[in-house]
Prior knowledge:
Structural class: mainly alpha
Distance between the termini: 86 Å
Radius of gyration: 29 Å
Strand content: under 5%
Shape: flat
Amino acid sequence: MPRPSRYAPDTRPRRDYWADEAACRDVEDASIFFPEDFPGAEVPFVAMEAKAVCWRCPVLDPCRDAALALPERHGVFGGLDKDERQVLRRREQRLARKRAARLRKENADAPASAEVAETGAAGEAAVEALGAA
């Protein structure tokens, strides 16, 4: 079988990009996804309208994951506005710090617990000897 040329066009089927199926692509006024650009009193209502589009979107989860992974500082993405995304990021950072502290503590205690396990049999024998005496 001949080896294909590296210059041959790539005709393999490509996986669809999740954003191609997003509901926000069909919205006539995409500015609703950036409610900060509207006058102050309208911001909550515009944000609710954008979130309503997001909530019926078939790719809500990948969109939300992408918005949380990237530093999107403005707009509504994945059904979350900038403040909601910030709260989720801070919560995840707090949980990561707690996990890291717990792992550090477990690793610091590991040598001590290994010593206790090694001397445990000897300690039990000593307790039995005292109890028998």
